[in-house]
Amino acid sequence: MELVIIPHDSRIDQADDIDELISELAELSKVAISMGLKLGYHSHSKEFAPFKDATFWDYLAQNTPDSFVLQLDVGWVNYAGHDAIAYIKRYPGRTLTTHYKIRTLQGQEGTPVIIGQDKYDWLKLYSTNIEFGRTQWIVIEQEEYPASYTPLEAVNASAQNLQKIITEYTFK
Question: From start to end of 90-161, where are the E strands?
Fold first, then answer.
C-alpha cells in the first residue's frame, strides 16, 4: 500500500473548520511520508462549492503539501458543474488516483450511466490523468445502474468501455 485516502471529513466544506482540517492533514501527511506513504482526500460535490474566490477543493489543494494526493471523483465533480480535466491540470502530479463514474442529477432518468455510453470525453480525461495527474489508479465506481443490469453487469460494462478507451489512447 502506498496511498491512504480519507473518504470524507465533515469539516471540508465548513468555512470555520476547514483550516483546522487542513492543519491536521498537513501533519498527518508528514507522518505518512515518514512511513513511505502518501496521504490524500477523496472529492464529492460539496468540495466544489464556492469558497474564498475559488472552491473548498482549491483551498484544500492550495494549503496542503504538493505530496498530498487529490483523489478526484469525476462523477461528483461533473455533478457539481465543474471540469475534472481542468482540476487535474490545475494541480499537476497530485491526482494519483481517480474515481471514474457517471453521477446523474435527480430527475435525469434515462441518462446513460455506463462509462462510454454517454457524451463525456473519457479519452481526454484518461489522457489528462496520465499526462498531468501522474495517475496510478483508476477506480470504476458504479452507483447508478440501468434497469436491465445488475450492479456487477453495470461495472463490467463500464470497465469494458474504459478498456477500449485506454486502448485507443495507447495506440493513438
Answer: 97-100, 137-140
Distance in angstroms (rounded) separating the CA atoms of residues 102 and 115:
7
Largest Cα–Cα separation, the chain = 49
Encode pLDDT of 45-90 as tens digits: 999 999 999 999 999 999 999 999 999 999 999 999 999 999 999 9
Does the pLDDT at position 107 exceed 80? no
Task: Assign 3-class secondary structure to the chain.
Answer: CCEEEECCCHHHHCCCCHHHHHHHHHHHHHHHHHCCCEEEEECCCHHHCEECCEEHHHHHHHCCCCCCEEEEEHHHHHHCCCCHHHHHHHCCCCCCEEEECCCCCCCCCCCCCCCCCCCCCHHHHHHHHHHHHCCCEEEECCCCCCCCCCHHHHHHHHHHHHHHHHHHHHCC
- Residue with C-alpha cell 483551498? 59
Residue 109 has pLDDT above 90, yes or no: no
Q: What stretch of H or E contains 88?
A: helix 84-90
Strand partners, 38: 3
Closest to 113 measured CA to CA, from 145, 151, 159 = 145
Report the distance separating Cα 84 and Cα 69, nearest Å. 15
